[in-house]
Specification:
1 helix, globular, Deoxyuridine 5'-Triphosphate Nucleotidohydrolase, Chain A, 36% strand, mainly beta, four-stranded antiparallel β-sheet
Length: 150
């Protein structure tokens, strides 16, 4: 595993005493992002952008993916509106997490609570090669559900 240098900026709304996102265990693939704003009460099916108080500069050739936290989704029905969300290497604004409450009951997201996880990954750029015919494959044009359930 190799480290990727990512520049990070604490914005004025980044709470004093908060630590930068870090890996919870040596085998963790993602760092946790926290709510840097006030407590939020989310009604069922309500969406909100949760501030992190952070901005980053990824190196060219990388993206950051923002994903739901499994505990929040399985225990409280809190997910992300778009998942994974992509942060491009040229974005310099605040990291905002688009949270949604899929539960039937209102859910509170507290100040400092971990709301999402972020993975940094390399990106392959597309070099299109227009053709009159695609190479054969076993699956061919079989779409949704075409490979069966087992």
């Amino acid at each position: 595993m190799s480290d990727v240098v990512v520049h990070i900026l604490k914005l004025p709304n980044f709470p004093p005493g908060f630590e930068l996102p870090s890996y919870a265990t040596p085998g963790a693939a993602a760092v946790d992002l926290r709510n840097a704003g006030a407590d939020i009460l989310l009604a069922p099916m309500e969406r909100v952008l949760v501030p992190t108080g952070l901005a980053i500069a990824l190196p060219p050739g990388y993206e950051a993916q923002v994903r739901p936290r499994s505990g929040l989704s399985s225990r409280r029905g809190i997910g992300l509106v778009n998942s994974p969300g992509t942060i491009d290497s040229d974005y310099r604004g605040e990291l905002l997490v688009p949270v949604i409450n899929f539960d039937r009951a209102p859910q509170r997201i507290e100040h400092g609570e971990r709301v999402a996880q972020m993975v940094v990954a390399p990106v392959a750029r597309i070099a299109w090669h227009e053709t009159d015919q695609l190479p054969e494959s076993e699956r061919a044009a079989g779409g949704f559900g075409s490979t069966g359930t087992r």
